[in-house]
Structures are given as C-alpha cells and as structure tokens.
Amino acid sequence: MLPVVAAALAVACCWMSQVTTIVGLYIGFSCVRSLGQGALTILSAWIVGEWFSRKRGLATALSGLGGGLSVMTIPILNGWLIQQYGWEIAWQVVAAFVAAALILPGWFIVRNRPEDIGHHPDGIDPADEDYSKTEDHQPQKSFILADEHSWTVTEVLKHPTFWKLVSVPTVSALVGTGLVFHCIALLGTHGISENWAVGMISFQALFATLLTFPAGWATDRYPSRYLLSIAMLALSSASILALIMPAHWMSVVYAMLLGINGAIFRSTGTVVWINYFGRLHQGAVRGVAWSIMIIGSALGPIPLALSVDYYQSYTPALVMFILLPLVAAVAVWSAHPPQQHA
To answer: How far apart are CA 262 and CA 256, in angstroms?
Structure first.
C-alpha cells in the first residue's frame, strides 16, 4: 500500500501543477488531502504499531516528529519555490520529492510485519529466550502477536470503550481546527495583532514538536487514558484563555496549551488503538476512528462562525469549546482497556 499510495499522491501533485478549472482544483485538492494526510498518515502509524511494542510510544513520537518539522519548514520551502519558479514547478518538485522519498524505499525496504521475516516486534528473534524475562526473571511477553488478542471492527464498534476513546481525537480535531481557523480574528478581539496571532500558530507547532518525545516516553510508562485526559484539559484551558485572555503575553500560554494537546495526540492518541484492540485489525480500527475525527475537523470552524453571525461574539461557541473537552476528559478517564474476547 505504501508505494501505491505514494505513487498516487505524486500523480495528484502533478495533476495540481496542470490545474486550469475549478472542477480540476476540487479533484486535485481532494486527492492530495485524502492520499497525503489521510492514507499516508494511517499507513505510517500502522507500520510503527506493527514493528514496535515495548517502546511503541517513543517510536510513534519519533515518527510523528516529521509531521511537526514539516509544518515548520515545508510551507517556507513551498513559498520559496513558488516565488522563484512559479506554482506549477513547485507542485512538480513536490511530486518528485514524494516519489523519491516513498515509492522505491516503500517497495524495497518496508515489510508488513516482523513475523514476515521471522522476528517479533522490536526486532526480537523468537529463538532468543531472554526477551521473555523481566528483571526478576519472571516470564513476561511484552508484545502482542499479529494474530492474537485482536478485535475486529464490528466488535470494536459495539464496545463503549471505543467511543470513549474516539471522543478525544474528535473533540481535539473539532476544537483545535476551529481555534486555528479563526485564530487571527479570535485573538484580534483581545487586541492581538495579526502577525502575532500567526506567529502563535508556528509557536504552537514548535512547542508540540518539542514535547513529542516526552509525550512518547510517557506513553510507554503511563496508562493512555490518563494522558489523553490531560490533553483534553489542556485544550479546555486553551479555550478558556481564548475567551478571557487577561493579558497579551497569555497568548503564549494559549499556544503552549494547544501544543501540549497536539503532542499527546501525536503519540498517545496514535498508539492507543493498537494498545487497546490489538494488531491484526489495527488499520481498519484506526481508519474508522480517523474518519470520525475528520468529520470533527470539518465541523470545527462552523460553531465559531455561527456564533459571530448570530450573537456578534465568539463567547457562545467558546463556552461550548470549553465544555466539550471536559466531557471527553471524563469519558476517556473511564476508558479502561477492554477484556479480550474469547
């Protein structure tokens, strides 16, 4: 799937370089979005989940580091390419980069599961018995084989734990997208300049990137439900600051809180599905959760827009943005790992 999706994304980028109609733009943008941030994101998380177990959170954090760095660097590179060579050439360069970075490595280097080459997750050789011993020499298997302890999508959808967990990425996407989409106007109501507001978006991405490794480390050591609850509390606190903003410098704290939410979401929020429901169907389970999250992201800007249109104020929507993460925090706090089915 990795080289196939990568090739399709490269073709979509080439398509965008030749767009001349609004219909062509819609088609191209939809393909770029769904193949890039949709399919490739799920694929990368799936691969890490298959190959790592003991330090899955840290491995996921390392993988997610590219997302944070890209937010800070790729727009600048794209802007330079557009200024120097035009947007058509810029799209073609991006297409070439995607092809070179993903198609051949994906075909010749990546393997689906460690079991395919006679290993267990973390590169453990099944013939090496030391993997099953803890410091007190008691047997303990720290990973889940691909064909054991795995829930099907049908089973997952029937279990309340899934819906408690999915409330976190859904609320995070809804509230986070809404706050970022309206960032300039929202912070502008508190007298914060447009340049400063845009700078806070970059600072948020930077802070989330710096916290990705600590969040991954914590993911390997503490229950996911606690960390996800912290992410929701950070998001609710950010919404409170967006509502009251007692001083301009508090916008930095606002960006830091959003960064905390983003860092935990990239690490804990990515591995929680395989940790709770197993490896065999993790792609399908994650795909359902991702689809629900995307719906939340699409709806995110609407409450703030309607609030301004009907009440001439962001306050009603921000009150909702304060409450929604609190509800999700309570829900996910009670999301204990489910008992494996017989």
So the answer is: 10
Give dist(CA 164, CA 292) in Å, integer: 13
CA distance 95 to 7: 9
Residue listed under structure tokens 């905390």? 260
Residue type, 130: D
| Phi-psi group of 279: left, alpha or beta (phi > 0 → left; psi -120 to 50 → alpha; rest → beta) | alpha
Q: CATH assignment of 153-333?
A: 1.20.1250.20
Rg of the chain taking only CA atoms, in angstroms: 21
The HSE-up count of residue 89 (CA atoms within 13 Å, CB side) is 9
3-state secondary structure of 139: strand
Instruction: State the greatest distance between any 2 C-alpha atoms of the chain, in Å, as a whole number.
Output: 68
Q: In the chain, what are the domain boundaries?
A: 2-115, 153-333
Tokens standing for 96? 């070439």
Q: Provide the token pair at 317.
A: 């929507």
AA letter at 161: T
Among the listed residues 337, 277, 258, the one whose alpha carbon sits nearest the alpha carbon of residue 151 = 277
User: What is the length of the chain?
Assistant: 342
> pLDDT tens, position by position, for the chain (342 residues)?
999 999 999 999 999 999 999 999 999 999 998 998 888 888 888 888 888 888 888 888 888 777 777 877 888 888 899 999 999 999 999 999 999 999 988 899 988 888 888 888 887 766 664 544 443 344 344 444 444 568 999 999 999 999 999 999 999 999 999 999 999 999 999 999 988 998 888 888 889 888 988 999 999 899 999 999 999 999 999 999 999 999 999 999 999 999 999 999 888 998 899 889 988 898 899 999 989 998 999 899 999 999 999 999 999 999 999 999 999 999 999 999 887 644
Q: Which amino acid is at 148?
A: E
DSSP code of residue 130: G
Q: Please state, in angstroms and as integers, the Cα–Cα distance from residue 42 to each residue in 37, 103, 258, following that order.
A: 8, 16, 22
